[in-house]
Amino acid sequence: MERTFLMVKPDGVQRNLIGDIVSRFESKGYQLVGGKLMQISQELAEQHYGEHKERPFFGELVDFITSGPVFAMVWEGENVISTARLMMGATNPKESAPGTIRGDFAVTVGKNIIHGSDSPESAVREIGLFFKEEELVSYGKTINNWIN
Ligand code: RTP
Ligand code: MG
User: Fold this and answer.
1) Spatial distance between the Cα atoms of 92 and 147, rounded to a whole number of angstroms
2) Stated pTM of the model
3) CA quadruple 111, 101, 54, 75: dihedral, nearest 10
4) What letters, b where the CB count within 10 A reaches 16 and e where it falls short, cover 111-136?
5) Which residues are annotated as a binding site?
6) ipTM value > 0.90
7) Active site located where (predicted)?
8) Measuring from atom 19 of ligand 1, which residue has the nearest CA?
9) Binding-site residues for ATP, please?
10) Per residue in 107-124, pLDDT tens?
């Protein structure tokens, strides 16, 4: 079953949006298989956002993601990587549709509430950066029979 890495960023944690965000993915029909509140180190932030290290906003991005606790999660389900990105909305909240997480809660690109893996390769890499195998719990639920 497909898995993705999602993370409520420091702005989302400070604004008490963890519950709403978790609820959206639960209601959709995805399953939470790992989750923790944590403070990201400078080193982990630079690894996580390594693809952006030459971009002008890299310093700000690392400062922001390390500025307070984040809620890191792994979610499982059919097509969860790309569907979670749709549920998050466009990177820039000026373009993200109402009904999406960024469309409903964010105003500027630098504080856009949530991160989600953008491909199967990113998902594997990011899950490995943030979670140990034993922190992930796969389990059956009879309700899935009504969804898949
Ligand atoms: P994320 O990685 O955080 O899930 O966001 P994303 O895939 O939608 O966007 P990405 O291109 O990976 O950019 C990572 C984060 O960098 C910040 N950003 N700032 N100032 C700017 O022009 C700018 N562009 C991107 C955003 O916070 C974005 O989420
Ligand atoms: Mg990205």
Assistant:
1) 31
2) 0.95
3) 120
4) bbbbbbbbeeebbebbbeebbeeeee
5) 9, 57, 85, 91, 102, 112
6) yes
7) 115
8) 110
9) 9, 57, 85, 91, 102, 112
10) 999 999 999 999 999 999
